Structure formats: C-alpha cells, structure tokens
Amino acid sequence: MDRWVERNPSRIQHWNGWGADFRTNYRYSRYPYFGHNFWNGRNLIGVNLGVHGGRWGYQPWAGGRPWWYWYGTPAWTVFAGWYGWNRPYYYDYGPGGNVVYQQDQVYVNQQPVGTPDDYAQSAAALAAVDAELIAATPAADWQALGTFMIVTSEQEKDPARMIQLAVSQKGLISGSMYNRETDKAYSVQGRVDPETQRVAFTFGDRDDIVLETGLYNLTRQEAPVLVHFGPNKTATYVFVRLPEPEHTDPPAAALPEPQSELP
C-alpha cells in the first residue's frame, strides 16, 4: 500500500477520470459553499452543536483562519511529522484495488482482515468519537484537508453533496457535509488510525452510515472513499477536490501553524 500510487498508474487515472470533467466545468456561485455568508441563517444537523462567531455552527476551527483557508490542499509531510509515518498508504477500493471484498472475506493489501461485517464494525469503531473532544480542540491544532464534491458514480456530472474536512494533531476528523438539493448541512466527526492511516467518519446523528478512506487519499485531487451502509452494504464514491474560490474578505488574524506534540 505504501507504493500503490507509483505501481498502479492506471488505477490512479481511473479515479482521476471521475473528477476531470466535473472540475473543468465547475463554477462557483456568488456565495461559495462554506464561504463567508454560507452559514447565515442555516442550521447544522449533528450532536453537541456549538456556535462559533455566531455563524459557523459545529466547526470548531472556523473562526481562527479565513474561510478560504479550509479549501487548502495539505502536504503529506505535515502528517508524516505529526504521526511519525515514513510512507503514505493509499486506499484503493474495489476490483483492481488493494481493499477488496471476495465472497465472505475482506482483503487489505492481499491479507484477510475479516468478514464484511467485521470490516464495517471496525470502521464504525474508528469513527466513533466524543464530539466534546472535537469542540474542545484549539483552532490552531486543526489542519485543512480541503473541500470536496462527493461524486457517487462516473456518470454523475452535477453532484448534490459536498464536504469540508479538517484533521487535528491528535487524529480527530471534523467538518461539515452539505446537500444543496435539500439545503441541509451536517456535522462530520471521526478519527485517524495512527497505525494504518485509515480514516473513518460519520455525519450528523447517523451512525449507521460510515465513510472511510486513507489520510493520504485526502491530500490528493481525487480520493476514493468506501461508504458502509450498515454492516453488509457498501458503495465506492470519489471525493473531488474543489479549488480555492476567489475572495475579497479581509484576512483574519493569523494563528500559529500547528506544532507537533509527539516525540
């Protein structure tokens, strides 16, 4: 898994193809998603919601840096330094990938890791975090993972859902997911496994739908994501990174860059 990208260029091109046409034709509206005016009058669905700056809802980081910072693309080296990782692991789902379902077993990097039910439960356990831990994390400890459209198939040209994610030094995942067709926004909460670099998270108050990917995936332009709908049903989606929108807002007060607390 640590050299999957270099050894499997056709698989990377496959996932890139999901986002290429969409990204070329995408245009922001006057008020970009998750932008300065986005949260005005909009409620966020989730647990232990807090209000930051009167408009940002659940996001514990949003008042610390300007809103466009959270569209940024992170460098892998930041996480390597935080967690002491030597090589990035890339998670590639489905036939031809390195996470494969075969009959009653799931194989990760050709090694059996349990039944589909076992694998779904492990994702759910990783995603289960106390929202108070997220809310209590200082703004300076969060690193932007970016803002993505959620593409559910190669044929989908106008996705309804988008997601903005951030990760903390201690491996917590937070953010917001928005469905423009229903005009509903949901909190995101989850965690990074420091051993496997696997990321899993839920949204809103739903714990029966768990999304998983790799942290390295979320540093790239397209990130394949496995979605668990309960213990026995899955789907593979792709997160397609959105570029930073144009902005004219005055810059917010700068915060120090996160410093590792790990030895």
Helix fraction bin: 10-25%
Overall, the morphology is: globular
In N-to-C order, the SSE pattern is: HHEHEEEHHEEEEEEEE
Number of helices: 5
Q: Are there runs of 5+ residues with pLDDT below 50, and where?
A: 49-57, 258-263
User: What's the overall average pLDDT, rounded?
Assistant: 85
Structural class of the secondary structure composition?
alpha+beta
Give the spatial strand order of the biggest sheet.
5-6-7-8-9-10-11-12
Structure description:
Helix content is 17%, strand content 31%. The protein is α+β, with helices and mostly antiparallel strands and 263 residues long. The longest helix has 17 residues, at 9-25. It is globular. Mean pLDDT is 85; it is low at 49-57 and 258-263.
Brief summary of the model shown:
By secondary structure, the protein is an alpha+beta fold.
Secondary-structure map:
Blueprint: H1 4-7, H2 9-25, E1 44-45, H3 76-83, E2 99-102, E3 105-108, E4 111-114, H4 116-127, H5 131-135, E5 142-151, E6 161-168, E7 172-179, E8 184-192, E9 198-203, E10 206-214, E11 222-229, E12 233-241
Parallel strand pairs: 1-8
Antiparallel strand pairs: 2-3, 3-4, 5-6, 5-12, 6-7, 7-8, 8-9, 9-10, 10-11, 11-12
Task: Give the tags.
31% strand; alpha+beta; 5 helices; disordered C terminus; three-stranded antiparallel sheet; globular; 12 strands; 17% helix; eight-stranded antiparallel beta barrel; 263 residues
